[in-house]
Amino acid sequence: MAEETTFVAYLRPQGQRKGERNAIRQQGGVLAGLSKKDATGAGLWLDETLAEKWLSDPKARSSIVTLQVEGQAIPAVVKEVQIDPVTRKVRYIDFEEVAFDRPVEVEVPVAATGRPRGEVAGGTLQVQTRAVRVRALPQNIPAELTIDISPMEIGDTLHSGDIPLPTAVELVSDPGEVLVTILAPRRGAAEGEAEAEEAEQQA
User: Fold this and answer.
1) Domain finish residue from 63, 98, 133
2) Domain's final residue, options 80, 98, 116
3) Do residues 149 and 179 share a domain?
4) CA–CA dist 7, 5 (Å, integer)
5) 93-142 pLDDT, tens per residue?
6) Is 102 exposed, middle or buried (0-12, 13-18, 19+ CB in 10 A)?
7) Is there a smaller number of Cβ atoms within 10 Å at the N or the C end of the chain?
8) How far apart are CA 134 and CA 124, in angstroms?
9) How far apart are CA 63 and CA 83, in angstroms?
10) Is this model's pTM higher than 0.85 or not?
11) Rounded CA gap, 65 and 3, in Å?
């Protein structure tokens, strides 16, 4: 099960103006929204420093968050995070309230383990996707998914559909999405290495 985190969240008034939202950011807050089980929503804000630190962990987006809102504890997951393209700071976090008897969709990081045989043979490991979306009950959400890439040879590719999933976890991402590929070494680089090795043997 994914890790749980608790945040104190503060309600924002409906119809808040741009100046009021900017004031929250200037005072060290990050804006957030909560989609509730009853199909209503609420505007929130959190401490920016704590939110930034939490989101720096790749496992954060697969974790269950308890939002303490005016004395009420609300379990939620992250639906989306908006990042400022210039400052790279978090601008907005979209949360979804969860019920432990209903599946939710979340983004889960993928950890590749082992060193590919193709990389040992001179190939280049290219990682294209570091997370996938899955559907599961909140208590069954994995903190991360792992896949062994050590058997991969030059030219091999692994896809999202190749990830072994825990019981009761369903892949939502395209199963054909590329995770990792072992590229063949560049011809010039390979020839240079071969010539250097031959020169060493003749010396």
Assistant:
1) 98
2) 98
3) yes
4) 7
5) 999 999 999 999 999 999 999 999 999 999 999 999 999 999 999 999 99
6) exposed
7) C
8) 29
9) 19
10) no
11) 9
**Cα gap 12→154, rounded to integer Å:** 54
Query: Please, which residues have CB within 8 angstroms of residue 183's CB and are 6 or more apart in sequence?
Result: 123, 124, 125, 126, 154
Q: Calculate the average pLDDT of the chain.
A: 89
On whether the CB atoms of residues 106 and 68 are closer than 8 A, the answer is: no
How many structural domains compose the chain? 2
And the tokens for 200? 């060493």
Q: How far is CA 182 from CA 78, 127, 144, 148, 155, in A?
A: 32, 9, 22, 14, 5
Which amino acid is residue 166, in one-letter code? P
Nearest Cα residue to 122 out of 62, 50, 189, 25:
189
- At position 26, the amino acid (one-letter code) is Q
- The number of CA neighbours under 13 Å toward the Cβ of 184 is 6
**Among candidates 135, 70, 65, which has minimal Cα distance to 97?**
65
- How far apart are the C-alpha atoms of 129 and 173, rounded to whole Å? 11
